[in-house]
Amino acid sequence: MFSLDIFRNKYKTDLTEVKIRDRAFSFFIPRELEPFLDQQDVFHHFPLWTKIWEASLVLADHLASMEPRPGKRLLEIGCGLGLVGIVAASFGHEVTMTEQDPDALNFARANAFTNLSPSNPPIEIHRLDWNQPAFDRTFDLIVASEIVYSEKNYEPLFALFKALLKPGGEIILAEGLRESSVNFFKEMGRYFEMKAQKKTIRTPEKEIRIILCSMKFK
User: b/e for 114-136, b at 16 or more Cβ within 10 A?
Assistant: First the structure.
């Protein structure tokens, strides 16, 4: 059983506010990055989950715009702090969120506890290893944001999609526009019918381009 008191005692956190389609959310984020770094090699399993990424905001907004389908289950992989899955659940989708990192799972649970009410569809949160994607069911929709940073992930992700997506199901990914993501979508184009669109988030400091891509097996 998750305890918010235990979570608060274990982690130093800040709260960040996010608004999706005029609905406000509050997310716990780590106050410091150092506790989650490998001190021997800071780039080994770098904790990308500790940040709310712009691609996650794009994906969350897209799912919020989709009409929930009763009985249709959504799987989020690499959920990080939980923003995408929590927003989707708050807009009526039936969601299972997954992560491999145990600290990320704790933050996702805390954020789900804080943002979701009993009136929302129940949300499930589980550990998932992409290299051994063991689940006792398949899903109508698989979603993720900012999961493609290395070519070594291509094969495990493709195997996961084959194992966990229902026949006729859909995958929706949001990725920053960079070489690794472009190459991934090119590779997946061998197996999927794809519909991609570019989204742009502008701030006073920079312009961030996001690829939002829907994929269905050929």
Answer: bbbeeebbebebeebebeebeee
Kindly give the confidence (pLDDT) of every residue in the chain, 218 residues in length, as a single tens digit, with 9 standing for 90 and above.
Answer: 789 999 999 999 999 999 999 999 999 999 998 888 876 654 557 888 999 999 999 999 999 999 998 899 999 999 999 999 999 999 999 999 999 999 999 999 999 999 998 888 889 999 999 988 888 899 999 999 999 988 888 999 999 999 999 999 999 999 999 999 999 999 999 999 999 999 998 878 889 999 999 999 99
Q: Where are the domains of the chain?
A: 54-217
Q: Which two tokens stand for residue 17?
A: 């506010």
- To the question of domain 54-217 being in CATH 3.30.70.370, the answer is no
pTM over 0.85: yes
| DSSP helix, strand, coil percent of the chain (3-state; round to 5) | 35, 35, 35
Nearest CA to 142 out of 150, 151, 133 is that of 133
**How many Å apart are CA 217 and CA 183, to the nearest integer?**
18
Q: Work out the angle at residue 151's Cα, subtended by the Cα atoms of residues 183 and 52, and round it to the nearest 5 degrees.
A: 85
d(CA 156, CA 41) in angstroms, rounded, equals 24
Residue 192, helix vs strand vs coil: strand
Residue 89 DSSP SS3: helix
